Amino acid sequence: MVYKKNMVTSSEVYEWILSFIKFGRDRSQRSAAIDRMRILADFAGHPEKCAPSIHVAGSKGKGSVTGMIASILDAHGIKTARYASPNVSDFRERVSLGSRFFDEETYCSAGMDLKQIIEGRLHEMEEPAFFELFTLWFFLCSRHANCGAMAVETGMGGRLDATNILDPVLSVITIIELEHTEYLGDTIAAIAGEKAGIIKNDRPLILAEQKGEALAVFKEHAQKKNSPLIYFPEHAETGNIDIDRRGTSFSLSIRNPKGGVSILNDLFIPIPGEVQAKNAALSILASKTAFPEIGESSIREGLSNFTLPARFECISQNPLFIIDGAHTPESIDLCLKTFSSLYGSEGILIFGCAAKKDIASMAALCMPFFSRIIITRPGTFKHSNPEEILTIFEQEGRKLSKPPTIYCIPDTDEAVENAVNLALEHGLPILGAGSFYLAGEIRGKIAPM
After folding, report:
1. Quick one: which H or E segment has residue 320?
2. Which of 40, 101, 135, 228 fits a disulfide with 92 by CB distance 3.0 to 4.6 angstroms?
3. pTM
4. Would the CA dihedral through 83, 84, 85, 89 be positive or negative?
């Protein structure tokens, strides 16, 4: 490994960390990652302990929940670092100060600390992987910025994730779905077991509503860890959900431990979708449990100021263009329901996803909601086969009496250009979905509003 003498921009730090990517190893040797991470943290003086943390895992909504928690804490006056993945347009989205980036001095100072650790101590350990160094960079940035709290999203799974060196004030687990089955297991119970690895001794667990097999796993792990289980359906309830093109309004009722109910009416988050109301409600419960002094005004301000790229994000008004990182049948279903309720079912879909996804299920869901579908490649970071996806979509189309017109345009630039031209010609809205990588590619072509 060749080291630069100095790094004076955050981009230089990022490029240096990228040099540690070893395709085929980072995830195939996952069991070693947490051990390497503990060694790295020890070398760095345990920056993960620099502030109270909230640790978030799950299959769906964990990025939104992590971001909303950070936004609420920030509105309360707690300087909160946020760790998330993946990024959509800028790597700094993953290592940030709430909804803002750290200043360049923080990124670079933390980066130089990281470089010195690796240069001085690498001979004492196996070479770390990209995600481990990236995670440690976040903790070092948090320490350099003197943050008062950290909201930390896991990467994949939980038990062996690099972020799991944390001893958080509480853990949050969102909805569990079948995902990354080649690494996490091919059943809901197995995946729940991996996510349950973030539950810590004597620390509360805030748990979203779950399927029965997942709930049983979480109850068992919480009991073993003596972790107070705060199961959302038993402690809180959302209501009066109203979705329009501006965002989502809802109310939240929270049952008080000593009796009675606290009700928050007319809450608003500027992202359309019923699922975002549920994510917001979970983030409120987590924030109030971790920091009971947080008041209603901070909750309202934090939610109303919250933004997150590629979560039903409008990036253009003419033509109307929405991007969403939905990439599982469940998240695609929710995205389509929101899109069709707001914009009808004659629009244009740009779809691209990585290989090994449940393409048939997503294709079956998408077909009835669009008049035109463009299949493309979701960037180059993950393998994808647009021609195979096209075949599957065409097979699903033959089941309909009036299928949409389907195109295969592997080049993303060309696909976006064609979609925009069609939308302007026919006055149609566009949805880009199937992958966060595709959303990032599209976002890079069209400046957000």
Report:
1. strand 320-323
2. 101
3. 0.93
4. negative
